[in-house]
Amino acid sequence: MNEQTNTNKIISLTRVSKWYGTFRALHEIDLDVALGERVVICGPSGSGKSTLIRCINQLEKHEQGTIFVEGIELNNKNNIIAARDEIGMVFQHFNLFPHLSALDNLTLGLTRVRGLSKIDAEKRAMEYLELVHIPHQATKLPKQLSGGQQQRVAIARSLCMQPKIMLFDEPTSALDPEMISEVLDVMVELAESGMTMIVVTHEMGFAKKVADTMVFMDEGKIIEQAPPDKFFTYPQSERCQQFLRQILQH
Amino acid sequence: MRSKFVKLFFLALGCTLLAGCGDANWGWYVVSPYTKSGQTNLKFLLGGLNYTILLSFTAILISIVLGLLVALPGLAFHKGLRAINRVYVELVRAIPILVLILWVYYGLPVVAGIQISVFWAGVVALALSDSAFQAEIFRAGIQSIDKGQTEAAQSINLSYPDTMRFVILPQAVRRILPALGNQLVYMLKMSSLVSIIGMQELTRRANELVVTEYRPLEIYTILVLEYLVLILIVSAGVRWLERRMGADERQ
Fold it and tell me: What is the pTM of this model?
């Protein structure tokens, strides 16, 4: 898994901090991600994992430190827009547009942002729906799809914009157990295709399978950062050991 | 649904006619469809209908656009923009419609140095007054849409106008359709106030006929029925639109 010796940093965070009022959500985070690297972030709830990846595409603004994506510093509107062109995001609650069909969820960005014609957009959208194995549901509204299918449409919606980086914010936590694997399968396939991925998840089986780097966060800090074999066998910190014991218990 | 409206209407009509059998001294001849003068009077009264409709619909269209334009800064992150929204809503909402109609018709031409017809004075006053309420309806509707929708749109780099146009407003409008229907009905009724500056709509015409015929009871009864029928039809139209747009959000 760890053949990535590429030092080409596609994402670079330096001393990034963020507060919600007096609550410090992120505490001087340093994190580098190489092109093609798969990073899995875990940690207890409220530890800042979601905030961290939401800062990477600036759905949350960081208040201190610097974030570079593809060499672009996220410090003004134009740069953020340029960076978002390279970043796709998948949300815990899918956030599909409920009034649009699965296909139109994909074509909206393709026509309005990428400037494709309707025909080209639909053609590309269908390719990506095939990639997530649901081309036959293209004309259905999100509410007519199962949770797993909705999340796969959401993944396709991000992917069809052809980003270099994919962010996943607990993509399976809102799903019924029997639907988790169909979403994880798509994510594994994506990882195998060489996509740079940052995934916040508690699915440790998935993490072991695809991660190049495991990150454990607690109280807004990165407590531990290691390749998965080392991370799961010899966790250094007490908190990380405790967290892994709890999560791997069953 | 439709048959219920019809029943309700006949019930109201029946009550009115029954009342005519009582002690009150009714003189339906003024609006009798069987006499020449009655026909003329009826035609005169009904002639106000197109003005009422034209006035109300023009005003509601303008107030919807204005309301949306005022609502958007109210949703902004920037405090100054939100203040613009608050000041507008609070000021406009505080002026009684009748007062606004009088001011726009008699005051505005002096201040702005323009000629303004009775019709446009009415439209401007009604639209302004209603826009403050529309703004609040739109703000509530847009705020009711889950934040995740905006975030998803941002994550694929959809611009703000596109996010509003393709993602937020189509969902918000569905939710606020009943409230928009309310405003339309309200507008149809408030348009009667424009009679005060001489607009030849339903109410003005009834007033003028009363002055010449001295039969206020019958003529105003007809006026009530005119509004009732008009508004029941419009209400049914709004209901139909709600069903068509799936505003009831049933599967």
Answer: 0.85
